[in-house]
Specification:
Blueprint (H helix, E strand, L loop, with lengths): L3 E5 L3 E9 L5 E9 L2 E6 L5 E9 L4 E5 L2 E3 L6 H13 L2 E11 L10 E10 L13 E7 H9 L6 H17 L8
Parallel strand pairs: 4-9
Antiparallel strand pairs: 1-2, 2-3, 4-7, 5-6, 5-10, 8-9
Length: 182
C-alpha cells in the first residue's frame, strides 16, 4: 500500500502506510516526514557559545538551547546554517564547520539534524526577521557555564546537549597528543 498523507503542514507532513516488517508481519505505521534542520553552535570565541532562550509551547516552558531551524524547500544545509545564524542571533558566520548529522527520533520521524560550528561571527549585511512564532533572547555563555547548566538540569534540550558534546569531542581530537614514556 502506498503512503496516505494524513496531515500536511508547513514544517512536516504525516504519512500512514501499511508495511511488511522483517518477520513477515504487516503493520500500519505513521511517519513524520521533515525536510531536515540545522543546529548551530555559534562561538564568539573558542571558550564561549551563544544560546537562545525561547518559549517552547509544546512543553510549556522557556528554555536555553542552541539556535536551530528547518531547511527551506530545496535549501542547502550550509546556506540554511548561515541564514538561521543571522535570524536567531543577529550574526553571520564567516566560517562553518560541519560536526555531524543525527536523527533525533528515527522511530517515527525522518528528520535529520545537521550540526555546524559557527565561527568568526560578524554583523549581517542586512537585518534579519524572526519567524512569526519566535521570541528569542540570544546570550553568550562560557562553555564551563553551559556544562554546569546541563549538570544542574537547566538545559533540557537534547540537540543542545548533543551539539555541545560534538564541540567537546572536536576540541579533544584537535589537541596535540602527549608523548608517552616507554
Amino acid at each position: 500500500m502506498s503512503p496516505r498523507i494524513v496531515f500536511d503542514g508547513p514544517i512536516f507532513r504525516v504519512e500512514r502506510e501499511r508495511v511488511r516488517l522483517a518477520g513477515g508481519r504487516t503493520a500500519t505505521l505513521d511517519v513524520v516526514r521533515h525536510r531536515g534542520s540545522v543546529v548551530l553552535i555559534p562561538q564568539p570565541s573558542p571558550r564561549e557559545v551563544v544560546l537562545v532562550r525561547q518559549y517552547r509551547h509544546a512543553i510549556g516552558k522557556w528554555i536555553w538551547e542552541l539556535p536551530a531551524g528547518s531547511l527551506d524547500p530545496g535549501e542547502a544545509p550550509r546556506r540554511a546554517a548561515r541564514r538561521e545564524c543571522e535570524e536567531e542571533i543577529g550574526l553571520t558566520p564567516r566560517r562553518l564547520t560541519r560536526l555531524g548529522a543525527f536523527y533525533p527520533t528515527p522511530g517515527f520521524c525522518d528528520e535529520v539534524m545537521i550540526f555546524y560550528r559557527c565561527e568568526d561571527l560578524a554583523p549581517p549585511r542586512r537585518p534579519a526577521a524572526l519567524d512569526d512564532d519566535e521570541q528569542l533572547e540570544p546570550r553568550a555563555f562560557s562553555l564551563a557555564a553551559v556544562h554546569r547548566m546541563i549538570a544542574r538540569g537547566e538545559i533540557i534540550d537534547m540537540k543542545t546537549v548533543v551539539g555541545l558534546q560534538l564541540l567537546r569531542a572536536r576540541r579533544l581530537t584537535m589537541k596535540p597528543m602527549k608523548k608517552v614514556k616507554d
